[in-house]
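Quick question about two entries, pasted in order.
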Amino acid sequence: MDAYKKAGVDINAGYKLVDDIKNLSNNKDLGSFGGLFPLSLGAYQNPVLVSGTDGVGTKLLIAIKANQHKTIGIDLVAMCVNDVLAQGAKPLFFLDYLGVGHLDNEKAKAILAGVVEGVSQAQAKLVGGETAEMPDMYTHGHYDLAGFAVGIADSDKLLSPDNLREGDVLLGLASNGLHSNGFSLVRDILFKQNAYSLNDQLSGCEYDLKRELLRPTKIYVKSVLPVIEQGKIASIAHITGGGLPENVARILPDNLSAEFEYGSWQVPAIMKDLQEIGHLSFDDILHTFNLGLGMVIAVHPDDADAVESQLKAAGETVSRVGKLISGDKQVIIRKDQQ
């Protein structure tokens, strides 16, 4: 092992990290060759597993630059479990992958503590993962983070375009800022085109850039899953890369379009500041950022009041942002109110 350590890989540090994560997650089975999850199918007539995988993207570079790693794991879990939720499934378990150049146990523990917190918010279980130490792959403190989630649903209760009809109401759930998309553009505007520091505070923002940019992606499982299970939601779009146009179009049937009333919800100040500083068109920000909506939920008109009230009672900021109209899978943003 001394030769391997001289080559840059500390096996004992890896063993110590596994023990730390066992304690953080309260899962003593971590460290086995495969993750274990007891599967009870009694509540499901026609069970189907729903999986999702993702990473955090170049938001990682902000965390590295700021030397703040405690919440980036929440982003990782959120990007996966919110996709599973959008299918109408209950997240069951999660696995992560952390690739590093040199295993700094305190830093890795902070990263994976965020994963554990995200899994807790998703009401799921961390069943395993992999930490790979590759000194020639990652340098200057860089690392990569990826993961995947698996959920379950009854096949005939999955959310699909077939559930939608003309006149359905679109409810927008507020995002926690930028979430985990558009960071290559964010970094280009703030740190390449301009010489901003992470300690700077933009004019419209409540916090400095370090805190503003590292707001963790919101996990919607606790508030939204109960409404799904009550059969009150027709479909869900998780708003990630591509913004409203790309992600809402994914849930539409061929005969419907989605019409949004821009101004009916609050756009975070950070996105307005980025548009101004970067001289971006509305089309630029529309296709890059979530514009303040982490999820868009389609409900039938008769259910809209009850769903909105229930989501607000669960702590969500909810806005009526539009409706479904006859069309051909277009996402239309009306700016008449501006």
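Here is the second entry:
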Amino acid sequence: MPTILVLYHSSHGSVSAMADEIYETLNAHGADVKLRTFVKKQPHDVVVTKQDLIECDGLAFGSPTRFGMMAAQAKTFWETTSDIWLKGQLIDKPACVFSSSSSMHGGNEATLLNLSLPLLHHGMMLMGVPYDVPELLSTQSGGTPYGASHVAGMENSPELTEAEIKICRALATRLFDISKKLL
């Protein structure tokens, strides 16, 4: 079974809730899942290492929206990965992205594209949410073809909608299926 890294930063719990949905879905499929963060905020958090990236067969990467960009904690980590980039150690590994914002037009799609940039530079195979996921067409909250997303509202609610949960699960399933095929 593939080893899949779920790597995220969460400020108010929304991205953490999405990471948990992705983790649980991957785990249910039988993947060896590693849940990692960029900064230890909770006692159970495990901080990512470059070795985690090298050893994974697939990656789900999430961050809250910061003016259409990833959180500084995530960017700081990616800026340390030039050595594995030079060696091509992430080339052809499947990857997906997920994000959360405070409003429908708070920058989720721009952030998902921003999260994709270091993955593309590393030669990873980026996958999104295809339109055969029915919730993508009917959601009134988060969800984009670029990746899973959540709209937390001005209260920063980490509670995911049913559509957001289904989109997270569909993306995780797709990541698992492609990672397994590439083993």
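Reply: Residues 162-181 form the longest helix (20 residues). The domain at 3-181 is CATH 3.40.50.360 (Rossmann fold). Hope that helps.
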